[in-house]
Amino acid sequence: MNITAKIYHNEDAARKHLEKMRWGDGMHCPYCGGTEKIKEAKMKSKPSKANPEVKDVKGYYHCGDCRKRFTVRTGSVYERSHIPLHKWVLATHLMASSKKGMSAHQLHRMLGVTYKSAWFMAHRIREAMNDLTPPPMGGEGKTVQADETYFGSKSGPLPKERTSGEPFSGRKGGQKRAHKMSVVSLISEGKARTFHVDRATVDSVGEILRRNVDLASILHTDESRLYPRNAEDFAGHETVRHAAGEYYRDGVTTNNCENFFSIFKRGMKGIYQHCSERHLQRYLSEFDFRYNNRDIDDFTRAVAAIKGAEGKRLTYRRINERKAA
After folding, report:
1. What is the pLDDT, as a whole number, of residue 161?
2. pLDDT tens track for 246-301
3. Where are the domains of the chain?
4. Residue that wins the pLDDT comparison between 144 and 177
5. Residue 147 Rama label (left phi>0; alpha psi -120 to 50; beta)
6. What residues contact 54, with CB distance under 8 A and at least 6 apart?
7. DSSP string, 90-115
8. Residue 195: in which H helix or E strand, if any?
9. What is the pTM for the complete model shown?
10. Annotation: CATH topology of 143-156+175-292
């Protein structure tokens, strides 16, 4: 990363960079999709006490088909943001290149924006990193590792039943995991897909597996009781016994999931320190994105995040909506 590059400090350079990423194959109207009748629109800035001079504003375009004006921000996570584009480009690069994440407080200090703006930017960038239409994982002759982990503190009252439906025994440690947030991860061919669930049960884990894994795949799991019944739908199921100190046997392992969880937990504890349960899925998408693009350089990874910003709109209300159960 060359921190002195113009795209991180110059507004016109940043705008042209984003336009190239979004419209490299030809500019199109984000409202109607038209391509033939687009021309540059002449706009003037509004005078204010801070900037009394009227200046030409670049980056506006007019579509002759739907007669609407648009910019490179329109129809993306940058829409209706007054934060300069070069700060958006730099923030995206910083989050994409930091292996364990970058806190909103750090962005606030480095970008010279308020903490609230930095927090909002970070959530929008996480939304850009999220893949909304991923293909099924695995396939015939391929393996998919599945594992779950628990961390942090769960919101709301504690459950009164175990995942099996039986009541907690009340013994010391009986509710050790009940008050923690549940995370389920799937990894195949070096690509991760991770989910926050209200509770990791046979039914919730089974739904994730059936939605995301090709039924012709072979599942690799530990000895958890969450998987045997669900694995009946797939081509095969192999397990390793962690309780007996077995982590690898003839190619059967869940070590990739364990490695992903180690990066995730170090990032959440060391960088973010605290995460509300309502926002956990976006943080998981962020760690998935960096993990799945770990074999490319930082600049290319940031470009991938910028390309993912198109077609997504994240408002302050949506950020604060609780995740549906």
Report:
1. 60
2. 999 999 999 999 999 999 999 999 999 889 899 999 999 999 999 999 999 999 99
3. 6-132+311-320, 143-156+175-292
4. 144
5. beta
6. 44, 45, 46, 47
7. HHHHHHHH-TT---HHHHHHHHT--H
8. strand 191-197
9. 0.88
10. Nucleotidyltransferase; domain 5 (3.30.420)
